[in-house]
Design a protein that fits this description.
By secondary structure, the protein is mainly α. It has helices at 2-20, 23-38, 40-79. The protein has one domain (2-74). The protein starts with a helix and ends in a 16-residue tail after the last helix.
């Protein structure tokens, strides 16, 4: 939810600024953004954030996969018949 709100806010602010500033102001803003992107401190922070989010995504994927496997096993145990028949509720035909 927070990411979507931040994305929406950024889009609205960007649209507003883009429609309200003059050409000269827009060029100055673009130059400031370019300098910010080239700043080594900003690069260090963004790469660190990228590594952190990748690690969190990997951990979440591993946990989700394990949980899905556990749920599938529990459902299979709950649905499988106890008497060895192949169809729930039907007696086994093998003797």
């Amino acid at each position: 939810m927070g990411f979507k709100l931040g994305l929406l806010t950024g889009a609205v602010v960007g649209f507003y600024i883009g429609t309200r500033i003059s050409e000269e102001q827009q060029q100055r803003l673009e130059a400031q953004v370019r300098r910010l992107r080239e700043d080594p401190r900003v690069s260090k922070v963004t790469s660190s954030l990228s590594r952190g989010t990748t690690a969190m995504a990997d951990a979440a994927a591993a946990r989700t996969a394990g949980t899905a496997d556990d749920v599938a096993d529990r459902v299979a145990e709950a649905v499988s018949p106890d008497d060895g028949s192949s169809v729930p509720g039907q007696p086994s035909t093998t003797s």
